[in-house]
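Complex 312.
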Amino acid sequence: MTDIITITPSPAIDLSTSVERIVPVAKLRGKTQRRDPGGGGVNVARVIRRLGGDARAIYPVGGAIGKLLRQLLDQEGVVSQTWAIAGETRENFFVDEIGAGRQYRFILPGPRLAESEWRECLTLVAALEPFPRYLVASGSLPEGVPDDFYAQVARIAKQRGAKFVLDTSGPALAAAAAEGVDLIKPNLREMRELTGSEPSDAYEWEVAARDLVGTGKATVVALTMAHLGAALVTRDEVLRAQPILITPRSAVGAGDSFLAALIWRLASDASRADAFRLAVAAGAAALLHPGTELCRPADVARLAEQVTIERG
Ligand SMILES: Nc1ncnc2c1ncn2[C@@H]1O[C@H](COP(=O)(O)OP(=O)(O)OP(=O)(O)O)[C@@H](O)[C@H]1O
Ligand SMILES: [Mg+2]
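Predicted structure with magnesium ion bound:
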């Protein structure tokens, strides 16, 4: 039985290349060419698979790009459960400017979903048999999908006795938090939007996270603060991880890698501290290599030994 199923309402194919310099008008000849599956929940499932776990991915499939996405995931050993949509699956476009050490990330709008199309996802989730222990929804909502979509998924998970994990932003996150979810993984920007506050130091951020727990918006808040580390906040404890010192070569996939490692370990009944340690290592590991590559298991294992966790 699959313990973890991810939901990605807005998946993508990430097309990436690298050029020496970006200048207008001239033909910029890419030195490399790569296509990766993309989108929050899709990446979470891929990282879990890479780390040796098992996660299924639910996402909509449209047109030739959608077929390609499914094929690429098949090749990585991620089992897909899809539903068909009329629009073409989204593509994103990433360019590394090697000379300047900069990365450009173009996130394209993707297709609009009709009401019948997003409702089909809810039907599919409600009918999962057996239901997973962890349902992980991640990423933005496509045009046409109402802000309370994830709140509706949260309700289904609750009815089925599963843990609902959410990594998203803005009104979609706010609506699901109002419903109450098991775990959220806001970064600082998402935390600001969700709480409407502007904490000035790590302690104040933790107080804001505790408040989300205290008001029943989330049982666990995994607050990630990029190079400043992370905090895992529950009703009875705060775990703090000091950041790992690395030189980032990419900005892609830290959040997804963090969440994947965390949920994979929690689903394997590891302690919260051990799961958190691996998550911090996976987030940092995602940034070690240029391009769109996700974290490598050997890097995750090596970096995990450098993570210090304090109890607050
Ligand atoms: N520059 C960094 N140095 C060390 N670790 C990092 C760095 N950036 C991210 N991490 C690790 O990855 C985790 C998640 O990163 P971050 O807080 O940037 O999430 P995010 O904003 O959701 O990322 P994404 O842009 O991938 O959505 C951090 O908690 C940290 O453990
Ligand atoms: Mg994120």
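The first helix runs from residue 40 to 50.
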